[in-house]
């Protein structure tokens, strides 16, 4: 057959094309290699590290010291509990903020839907840390918000937002809300509008139509949004540092892990603690999926 | 602070955003390091991540030896990484000229310098470059500035710093002050040359604080609740608190440390504390988030002197004195341009350039002759400039008076198991 040779196809001549059965592996290879190099291998290295013993000065040796894990839990239980609590607050707040936004874009966005989604993602063109630091200026005690309110006498001079748990939780919520909105939007966008009309034909009012039709159909999105929001929220350490000022009672588990690596240089304890956190989150996510799994939602 | 003011349009800043080009040799080295990571050789096979303990000092002919230095030539570029608010600035000029003393070095030698004010904490900076040092790679820095303390001691002990060439520092030999020559933490200045020295004391904003602050106890006053800052590094709060308690930190015992820890814990429990800070305390007091805070002398004096909006700042020592420390220039292993680095380090031991630093950053100069130039300039100057220069020339925190000097103490030098004992005692206080 005569046809111009395309450079792209040149290397994969028909007779050399891999057999059909190997194609999935070939196609998955980049992702698998990526996972292996950047996830599996570092995890193995961290697992090894978490069982070592020693100091930064004298070096660390592999002694399979499982006590690193019990130490990590014993020393940091309070931080773990606080982080989980903050994660729950952030997730609930983000859902309350995100759902109406996603709903509105999906149902009333019209031809500007993609514009609205773009606007949601616009802040991501600036680094997460920079945006958080920007908040520390906006919310500073004599800044544009508090300074103004103080000068017109609405707030006492000593009032402050930075250096409080509220600032930390609000900062994390701000940073994660787009991750809550997007999965909600995707599931709301897929809701068949004729089902809503059918509900109305069956004499349901708007609230009933929402509660009995739209909301249940959006549950897969809620499920994904909860995971996408809560996991990074629990592990966050930037907000507690920048907006929390390391105030007493505001540090989260991520700050402890960071301090183990970057202040104390106690790598084994830091690694052990990171695994403890990961285990808690994996178990939590599995239980959550079991109780409110996507299958059950779609079956229902 | 000086560096966050005019980031835009400063070519040095823009260069700072883009790493130095990677040479082919380095590329191979990185590739090799990548392959090493794949093999997990160091981590698993050897059974430990770790620094094999190295004897300090260069091996014969190795990096830092006289033979090695003899073969080195100055490169055309230096990466100089320092703390914020630590070099003279002229904000009327854009570009490299905005750092006058450094610009003169660039003009004089033709060596380009990328100046980064990236070090906000000894602990975090060292932790960030440590993996590269451990792997025997270039950290990307030719000169780093590290305070005498745990981190510097560890870097010296692990052989992470290039031993300096004593023949390449004529200005240093001629002009270094006695206090900065042959320091206890680096006998013979084998690895370090002081950049500046300063004091840890207390800063407060008289806009909010109408009493003279001379003790840490005063910072616990509930009327300052939410606006009190403390340092969270591995030395300052601990040592200054011992001074508050009437303990000489230099000779303190673990029992003394416990007392200091108990005192510091009161800051966590009392509800007055805004938080535990590194260099970020400076932004926080500038933003009026902090009213009283532990502080480093020159940061505050410079702010007060050169920025009208901070005219209400005060820096003070405790009744019982202040902590004095030295920040040291050193060259990390595998630095790309060690000769250039030594040229630049020695440049600032010329009294003229030492004076340019002192009159801007208001720290204690390791070059007494530079200080004398500032004092002479103060006498000769007129008007507003005279006022500024005299403030510096008469400040006991820049030119310590014998009276203050008696009350200046060094950090406790920690050895062996003491390090872990100290850190286990204090570090949990800073994250709570």
Write the layout of secondary structure elements.
The complex is a heterodimer of chains A (300) and B (432).
Chain A: H1 7-10, H2 23-50, E1 52-55, E2 59-62, H3 67-108, H4 113-121, H5 128-138, H6 146-151, H7 165-189, H8 193-201, H9 206-235, H10 238-242, H11 253-262, H12 267-291, H13 294-299
Antiparallel strand pairs in A: 1-2
Chain B: H1 2-5, H2 11-17, H3 24-39, H4 41-45, H5 66-71, E1 77-81, H6 100-109, E2 112-116, H7 122-134, E3 143-147, H8 150-157, H9 170-175, E4 193-205, E5 228-231, H10 236-244, H11 254-270, E6 273-277, H12 281-286, E7 292-296, H13 297-306, E8 313-316, E9 322-330, H14 338-347, H15 351-361, H16 368-380, H17 383-393, H18 402-405, E10 408-409, H19 417-430
Q: What is the CATH architecture descriptor of the largest domain in chain B? A: 3-Layer(aba) Sandwich
CATH topology-level fold name of the largest domain in chain B: D-Maltodextrin-Binding Protein, domain 2
Number of domains of chain A: 2
As a percent range, the share of helical residues of chain B equals 40-55%
Low-confidence stretches of chain A: none
The major beta sheet of chain B can be summarized as: 10 strands, mixed
Q: Would you report the number of β strands of chain B? A: 10
Q: Please tell me the CATH architecture of the largest domain in chain A by its name.
A: Orthogonal Bundle
Assign the CATH class of the largest domain in chain B: Alpha Beta
Task: Indicate the structural class of chain A.
Answer: mainly alpha
> So, the CATH homologous superfamily of the largest domain in chain B?
Periplasmic binding protein-like II
Oligomer: heterodimer
């Amino acid at each position: 057959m005569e046809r111009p040779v395309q450079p792209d196809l040149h290397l994969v001549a028909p007779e050399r094309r891999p057999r059909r059965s190997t194609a999935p592996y070939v196609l998955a290879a980049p992702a698998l290699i990526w996972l292996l190099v950047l996830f599996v291998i570092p995890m193995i290295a961290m697992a090894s590290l978490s069982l070592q013993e020693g100091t930064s000065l004298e070096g660390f040796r592999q002694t399979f010291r499982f006590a690193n894990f019990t130490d990590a839990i014993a020393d940091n239980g309070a931080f773990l509990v606080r982080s989980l609590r903050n994660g729950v607050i952030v997730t609930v707040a983000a859902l309350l903020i995100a759902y109406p936004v996603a709903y509105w874009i999906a149902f009333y966005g019209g031809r500007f839907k993609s514009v609205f989604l773009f606007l949601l993602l616009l802040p991501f063109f600036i680094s997460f840390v920079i945006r958080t630091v920007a908040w520390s200026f906006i919310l500073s005690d004599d800044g544009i918000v508090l300074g103004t309110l103080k000068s017109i006498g609405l707030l006492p001079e000593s009032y402050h937002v930075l250096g409080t748990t509220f600032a930390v939780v609000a900062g994390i919520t701000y940073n994660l809300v787009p991750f809550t909105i997007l999965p909600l939007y995707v599931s709301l966008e897929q809701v068949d509008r004729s089902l809503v009309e059918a509900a109305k034909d069956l004499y349901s009012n708007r609230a009933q139509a929402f509660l009995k039709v739209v909301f249940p159909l959006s549950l897969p999105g809620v499920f994904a949004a909860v995971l996408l929001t809560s996991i990074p929220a629990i592990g966050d350490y930037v907000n507690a540092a920048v907006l929390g000022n390391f105030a007493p009672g505001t540090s989260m588990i991520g700050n402890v892990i960071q301090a183990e690596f970057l202040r104390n240089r106690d790598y084994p304890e830091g690694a052990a603690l990171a695994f403890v956190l990961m285990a808690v989150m994996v178990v939590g996510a599995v239980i959550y999926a079991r109780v409110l799994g996507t299958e059950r939602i779609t079956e229902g | 602070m000086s560096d966050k003011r005019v980031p835009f349009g400063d070519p040095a800043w823009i260069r700072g955003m883009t790493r130095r080009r990677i040479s082919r040799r380095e590329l191979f080295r990185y590739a090799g390091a990548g392959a090493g990571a794949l093999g997990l050789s160091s981590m698993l096979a050897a059974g430990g991540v770790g620094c094999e303990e190295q004897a300090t000092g260069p091996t014969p002919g190795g990096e830092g030896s006289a033979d090695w230095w003899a073969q080195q030539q100055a490169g055309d570029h230096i990466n100089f990484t320092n703390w914020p608010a630590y070099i003279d600035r002229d904000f009327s000029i854009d570009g490299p000229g905005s750092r006058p003393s450094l610009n003169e070095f660039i003009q004089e030698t033709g060596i380009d310098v990328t100046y980064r004010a990236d070090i906000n904490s000894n602990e975090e900076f060292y932790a960030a470059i440590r993996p590269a040092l451990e792997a025997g790679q270039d950290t990307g820095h030719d000169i780093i500035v590290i305070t005498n303390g745990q981190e510097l001691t560890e870097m010296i002990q692990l052989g992470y710093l290039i031993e300096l060439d004593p023949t390449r520092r004529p200005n240093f030999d001629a002009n270094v002050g006695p206090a900065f020559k042959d320091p206890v933490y680096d006998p013979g200045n084998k690895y370090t040359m002081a950049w500046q020295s300063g004091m840890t004391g207390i800063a407060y904003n008289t806009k909010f604080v109408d009493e003279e602050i001379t003790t840490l106890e005063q910072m616990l006053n509930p009327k300052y609740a939410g606006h009190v800052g403390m340092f969270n590094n591995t030395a300052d709060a601990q040592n200054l608190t011992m001074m508050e308690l009437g303990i000489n930190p230099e000779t303190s015992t673990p029992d003394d440390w416990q007392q200091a820890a108990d005192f510091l814990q009161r800051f966590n429990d009392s509800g007055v504390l805004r938080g535990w800070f590194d260099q970020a305390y400076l932004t926080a007091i500038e933003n009026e988030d902090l009213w009283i805070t532990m502080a480093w002398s020159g940061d505050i004096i410079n702010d007060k002197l050169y920025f009208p909006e901070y005219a209400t700042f005060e820096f003070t020592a405790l009744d019982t004195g202040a902590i004095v420390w030295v920040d040291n220039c050193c060259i990390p292993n595998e630095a790309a341009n060690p000769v250039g680095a030594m040229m630049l380090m020695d440049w600032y031991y010329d009294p003229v350039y030492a004076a340019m630093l002192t009159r801007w950053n208001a720290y204690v100069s390791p070059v007494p002759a530079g200080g004398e130039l500032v004092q002479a300039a103060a006498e000769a100057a007129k008007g507003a400039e005279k006022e500024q220069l005299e403030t510096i020339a008469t400040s006991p925190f820049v030119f310590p008076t014998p009276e203050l000097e008696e009350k200046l103490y060094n950090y406790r030098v920690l050895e062996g198991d003491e390090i872990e004992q100290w850190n286990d005692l204090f570090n949990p206080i800073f994250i709570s």
